[in-house]
Amino acid sequence: MTTDLISSLSAVGPHDEQHQVPLDYDPSTCDGVKHLMETFPDLQTIPPHYVLPEALLAKPVAEAQLPLIDLSGLEDGSQCRAFTVQAISSACSEWGVFRAVNHGIAEQLVADMLEAAEGFFALPVEAKRALSSGDVMNPVRCGTGLNAPAAAYAGHYWRDFLRHHGHPFHSHIHLWPSHPPTYREVTREYLVAVRRMVLRLARAISEGLALQEDQLTRALQEGCQIMAANYYPRCPEPEKTMGMAGHSDHGGLTVLIDNGVGGLQVRHGGAWMAATPVHGSLIVNVGDYLEVFTNGRYKSVEHRAVVNKRRTRISVGVGHGPGLDTIIAPAAQLVGSDDDHGPRYGSVVYKDYVKSQQSSVARGKTALEALSLDGPNEPSTGG
Ligand SMILES: O=C(O)CCC(=O)C(=O)O
Ligand SMILES: [Fe+2]
After folding, report:
1. ipTM over 0.95
2. 183-208 and 107-121 helices cross at what angle (nearest 10)?
3. Can you tell me which atom of ligand 1 is nearest the CA of 230?
């Protein structure tokens, strides 16, 4: 055990012999679940703060048969372009999520990115505390539980995170963690590769929507990139808590990778389903901005993460949205003039939307529902 852990152990007071955490343990000011499990490695029961109400917990679920799309079909001169565009378009409207293969991001780069994230979480707690912030709009922040500041909510989640902005790099790279020493170089290379892929997808999506003008690619090209690295340590009682609550992402397209440990679930047709990792593929999610832009033709996917008893899970999601000062609204070309095809969402400055989505404790698609002009949607629950 490091001196670090010993000093923070004494800071939380005496604990009993039953491998329980001290009664005065406070998860809202703690250094996260990784530190908790390292401090109490024999923990048999999770602290009561992490036990979530039944309605928010996951029951065993079936495997999702996610659409699998070969992105080599988008390469210049490919005979399969029209077919691939159609596959992306159907996946975005029917599922809001798909698996991409032959995506053009080197396997080694994906492995390096996950290793850099792991290296960051392995830093001493002081290094992580230095990046913690209660401001959800801070361009770099590290924390635990939901994205909202921990003190703002009642149920705690079994997850630590590092979030930061990516592109445009010159505005942010100096704020990124400087350790592990390769962090900035690897992350930058990975974010460049992911963004290139996302812009190819945006062009394909515009083609699928038959947009004469490609405002989507332009908006994402000039827009922001926000990455979240998530660390879900093994959990002694995984059935009583969750790694991440159900939510949809705020951006246009999110690209998600993980360390091969399952835990992601997606909601489809009202049911939660497991999206088990498939080596070499990555997950692409439709986010709320794309749902708004397409006036609801494409649906942002609700997703969440469960934890497990044996293995640490690490995931890295990279969201791509328009510029923070952009007013987001349905694209004029996708809104009809008659009542049945009118605008289904109001407009909002993207920055304000991100703030409300990131601060949401209710999660689900509540932030998007607040923008909907259609009236209440199907409620999101656990199950
Ligand atoms: O860990 C996962 O698989 C989900 C992560 C996620 O949804 C996010 O970071 O927004
Ligand atoms: Fe997400």
Report:
1. yes
2. 130
3. 1
